[in-house]
Structures are given as C-alpha cells and as structure tokens.
Sequence to fold (511 residues):
Amino acid sequence: MELDFSRQLHYFWALMPEMILCVCGMLVLLRGVSGKYKEQSVSTSGDPSFTGGAELGWLALGGILLSAMANGWLYGVEEIGRDSMIAVDGFRLFSNWVLLLASALAIMVSFAYVYRQRLQAGEFYGLILLSTAGMMFMTGARDLIVIFLGLEVMSISVYALTAFNRRDKKSAEAGLKYFLLGAFATGFFLYGIALVYGATGSTNVYDIGHVVSSGDASSTLLTIGIAFLTIGFGFKVSAVPFHMWTPDVYEGAPAPVTAFMSAAVKAAAFVAFLRVFMVGLDGAYDTWYPIMWWLAALTMVAANLMALVQSSVKRMLAYSSVAHAGYLLVAITASNQAAAAGLLFYLLIYAVMNVATFAVVIAVAHHAEQRMQVDDYAGFGWVQPMLGLSLTVFLLSLAGFPGTGGFMAKIFLLQAAADAQLWYLMVVLVLTTIASYWYYLRVAWFMWMKPQDADGQHDRVVVPLPMRIALVTSVAIVLYLGLFPGTAIDFARESVEGLGALSGAMPGLGQ
Fold:
C-alpha cells in the first residue's frame, strides 16, 4: 500500500516542471506590477542587464532553471501504465530540454531590447514562462484534448507577446493577423479532434492507436479528421500553404518574440505533431503519407524560392523558418525511430542557432526595430568582429555547412529518409539546401566583403552580459554538435525507444 501511494505521488508530481513555470510566471507578473518595477530604473553601470526591470528577467531565468531541475528529476520517476493523459517518457523529457533552452536563450537576448523599448518587463517575461508551460503541456500530452489545452495556453500568450509593443503599429498589426488566422486554424484542429473521436471513440492517443491499427475506426471520419488535424498542425509549424501569417508576423513582432516563436513554438508543435501521427495515427500511415510527402516537398521548395528574393533580414529568416519546417516534415513522412530521433536532434540544433541568429540581428539593430535590411550589414563584420563571426557560424549552420550542427541534423534526417526509401524527397531536401546557401551566405558576404557606407552606419553596439553568454554558449553548442554529435544523437535515440511501445502494432516506428 505504501509503495502504491509512493508511485501515485510520483506520478502526481510528473507535471512539476510545468507547475514550476506557471508559479514562477505568476510571481514575475505580480512582481512586475509592484511600484519598484512599474518604471524601468537606470543601471549605474550602464549595462541594461542590471536595471530594475532586468531583475525580473533574472527571476524568470531562475524559474526556468528550477523547471529544468524538476525535468531532470523526472528521469527517476517510473510511469504507471501507458494510457495516461500525460506521458512521462524520454521523448517528452528531451522535448522539455529543447523548450527550456530556447526559452532561456530568448530571455537572455531580450534584456536590452525590453529596456530600450520601455516594455513592461514583468508582463513580457511572465508571458514567456506561461507560453513555455503551455508548450510543455502540449508536448507531454497523450490526449488530444490536453494537446488542445496546451496549444491554447501557448497561443494566447504568444498572441499577446506578438502585439506587445503598443507603440509600434507593425507589432499591433502582426498580433491581430496572428490572432485571427490562429483562431481560424484552431477551429480546424478542434474539429479534427471531434472527427477522430467520432471515428475511434477516444481522444487518448494510445487508445486511438489501438483502434486505428485494428481497423475498427470509421475510415471516412478518420480521413477527414486527419486532414483537419494536418491543417491545424500545419499552421503552427508554418508549412506551405499554411504559412501566410509567418512573414508578416515575424517581421512585425518584437525581435526577441520572433526568436522565441521561430524556435520554441515550432519545436512544441512538431513534437505534438509527431506524437499524434506516429503513435496515434500510425495505423493509418497509408492515408496520411501522401499528404505529408507533398506538404514536405512543397514547403521546402516554395519557402526557399521566396527566401531568395527577400531584402529584409527578418523576412528572410521567416521564410528560412518555413523551409526548416519542410525539412522536419521529412522526418514525420519517414515515420520510423531514426526519424523521431533525428527530429529531436534537429529541433535542439535549430532552437539554438535560430535564437542566436536573432540575437545578433537584435544587436545590429541597436536593440530596436531598425537596420533590418541586408544592405545594413555591409562591413559589419569588421566593425564588430566577434558578432560577425558568431553570425557567420549560425548562418553556415542554418545552411547545413559541414562542421556545424545544422549539417549533422540534416544528415540524420537524410538517413531516416533513406531507411524509409524516400529517395525523391531526399533529392528535394538536398537541392533546396544547396539553394539556401545563396541567401544565407549573402548576408555573410555583405558583412565581410562589402565596405560600409561613408556615413559610418555601424557604431559600436552594447552587448549585455546575458546576450554575450547566450552567444558564446550557442556557438559552442553549434560547433561541438557539428564535430561530435554522437552523445546528443544517442541521447535522442534513447529518448524515442519507448515511443513505439505505446501501441501494439506500429509498423512505421518499427521500420
């Protein structure tokens, strides 16, 4: 009896990382409305990372650290059964590491931006923590209703963050567009849940997998439900043709929010996408395989072609984010354990290099929304060599240059696609990757090869301590995982071992 109580108690605390983030988010919000933090106090050292409002940022980072410690503790918790609404498996815990890392990096690069733009620090950092908690609910859920609730908690917070700068009309416009299109896509997602429930009699991913694999599901309702779920997930991961919101929202949102959205929101959506389709709907693989194949191919081709003609760095990175969604869709199309591990590894690398890339963009813009054109980077590498070298490393990694983490991430995706014999999709991935070299290296060429204008557009910019830490850490991760990826990919493979065991008959994950 005592053992059973202990096990139940452990399972009750399985949501400890999410609960810590929620509590810390509320504490940051409450602390932010106190008289001390209503106005941004000036730092005596001149470093924005030590202002009064920035103390709330450090408090938010402390909450992420506590949540990370709780996530590590969960590795010692034994799950009771495999049909629960919340999973306690390696797949969820690895995903949590990615989300917590992306959130921490986003906060670290935002200190000076929040200070200079006179944003409410308590609300800003509190919303980041709450949206991260929603993402973690979403990625750890084994029930479609819980996934929907996590999606809503994440989305509402990100809607507010997108329109957070009330003095910027573009930010308000971006928030409104994101909210309207997001609400429309959420309707499709919820209707898809209803149809899948009608086809299988359950919203539990484990039960859905059994019903679909046994052939007892209503094929018509299931097919339409899969189509609607694909639309809902496709919007969140910015897959073509559901990407229409991405360029405008990424360009109009505050730069730290864009960094956070492009990394954390995409990672959470893909993890939930993978769990639903590769576990719950794996028995209907023949139904959704053609949809995913064409979605991946169209996203890779269209996004890279649109990125080639962009003159705004923010819009270019927005289409770059769409292109990377296409690469990740290859993993879902492959539907095997190698693909699941490759997707986790890719999300880890992508989160680091994308947030770090936006960190340099924020620094070039003097922690504002200026100097966002590619031409503005002329000669920047010689004026700020450390920032220039860091941005060059991140651009090469985004492009998939050998020796970087981005290259190894694409290699693992190609291996998974080869195991699934997706030869044509592999060719598309390789060709679009080669095409992406042009718009990534174009920025690097402007930094190092083109002299700056005579007006001296690049003054020395202040790089706060948290941003310096984030950049150094990101460069180290990108280069280390590019040269020595073995430990990380082995960890990812171990994390997906239990994923295929959730259902009795899963041919995709057994390939």
Remarks:
- Residues 16-502 form one domain.
- The radius of gyration is 22 Å.
